[in-house]
Structure formats: structure tokens, C-alpha cells
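Readers of this paper often ask what the protein records in our data store actually look like. The remainder of this section carries one protein's record, kept here as part of the documentation.

:::
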Amino acid sequence: MRLQQEFNNAVRLANYSLATERSYWGWVRQFLHFHNMRHPADMGGPEISQFLSHLVLTKNVAVNTQKQALSALVFLYKQVLKFEEVDISTWQSAKKPKKLPVVFSKQEANQVIAHLTGSPLLAALLMYGAGLRLQEALRLRVKDIDFGRKEITVREGKGNKDRITMLPEKAVPFLHSHIDECQRLHHKALNEGIVFVHLPNALAKKYPNAGKELAWQYIFASDTLSKDPRSGNMGRHHLTPRTIQRGVKEAIKKANIHKHASCHTFRHSFATHLLEGGYDIRTVQELLGHADVNTTMIYTHVLNKGGRGVISPADS
């Protein structure tokens, strides 16, 4: 238990999300069980390599899963146990296969959106209309929307980076509606003496009264109050991703679209349709929040006119 507490403290000092904290500790726990609960300080690179090989050979996990397990263990050794070096030179990670993203046509995107209502509808408009990831949409607070400048500020996106993207006009009335409902729930909570809203550690100290202000409330506010797993305080969190994912999956089925699509397909479609519209790839990179333009380049392979934009001789 002491190791877990030290690990959790280190994760929170590094300002990682609760989801990352839980995921990383899950990998550490699996690592310890694999080595018969030996203390990690008595192990090192060879034992990490053995565990990662076990994940590949026995559990056949995906490349991204291997990388996440490795990141968790490197974090344990460097940030918690304070090992200066962790030698995993004997471990060779599998290469991630290059897969093209699934993309909706403009017609398909609008067909899916037409079958959505409520929070799933607003989330889809933000993912397709502003390029947000699902979690980024759910974590939006009232203060992050600038109706005057038609901008959305995404706080602590992937890689813990902030960015600004456009506010789609179609989303505006639904945002106003959600903020009105958020305000109603907030006033109800205040009348019941509930003044807590989750903030990252540094902000919680800087703004101790943030829970009393509407500006800090989540736009996708949950109807029910819940206990914050880190502080133990009762407050109102945002909706769970499953709420939106279920709605989108059902809408895809109703739209009779037979693609392996999901919420993230809206973000892929946002990027692809902007490039089809002639926008510069650097602009699209910035709107998506990609650190490397090569990540954005994948969308050039799924543009409207088949492979590399070549017109088929059968159609010419």
C-alpha cells in the first residue's frame, strides 16, 4: 500500500489525469504479480523486458498497449523509485502498423448527426465541427467558450497542451442550452451547500472558491453528484464517455452506415474535410493539437479522390 501511495503522489505531482493514474497503476500491479510480488526496487530492466515479452507472446496485446505498459514502468522506476537509468536494451518494441483512419463523407457525418439529440448531439458537433477529442469535449468548462470571438479553448489536451480552435456556428444554440442547464444544476448544488468542482492540483490551490463560480463548471455536467476519488469531496463531474459513445454508435446504426466508425471518426473527418477544402496542413495540425505535422499527414491519404487523389481511368 505504501508503494501505491508513493506512486499516486508522484502521478499527481506530475499533473497526470485520474485515468492515467489508474491505468499506470494497473500496469504496475500486473508487473508485480507477474514477478510474484517482488519489490520493484529489487528488480530492473531485465524484469521489465520479461514482463513486456509476456504481454506480447502470451496476451498478444496491441503495440499501443505495450507502449503504455512501458511508460507506466519507466515512470515507476524514474519518478517514484528514483532510478537514474532503466536499461531495457534487451526489449524490442513491435512496430506499430500503419492504419488509415476511418472517415465519414460529409453526407454521412450529417446523417449521423441528424440521428442525435441532447449531449451526444452537442459532443458530435464539437468533434466534427472543431476537431475535439471526446474527452476534450467532455472536459470543457463554461469559461472555455468565447461566443464573441467564436473560439473554444481546449485546456490540457493530449500531451497536457492548451490550444484554441473554432466554435462551429451550428453548436452555438446547443451550447447556450447546455450552459443554461448547467447553471440550473449549479444553483441547485449551491443551495444544498455543494461548492466543490474538480480542478488540477495547482489550480485548486490558486482558485479555492472556483466551485462557487459558474465559469468553472463543466458544460457536459452530470445530473448526479459524485465523490471525487482524489479529494473525497462531493461535487458535480462531467458525463462519462460511455454516455456519448452509446448515443453515437446507435446513430451510426440508424443512419445505415456500415463503417467501423466511432466518436473519434468525427475528429478524423474534421481534419480530412478541412484538407479537402484547401486549408493548409499546418493550420489543420494546429487546430488538431498535433505536436508533429507527420501525424497530420495521415489524412492526406484519405482525401476524397481515392489513392493519392488520382482519378480512375474507368471514370475519365
In short: The two ends are 69 Å apart (CA to CA). Residues 19 and 131 are 22 Å apart (CA to CA).
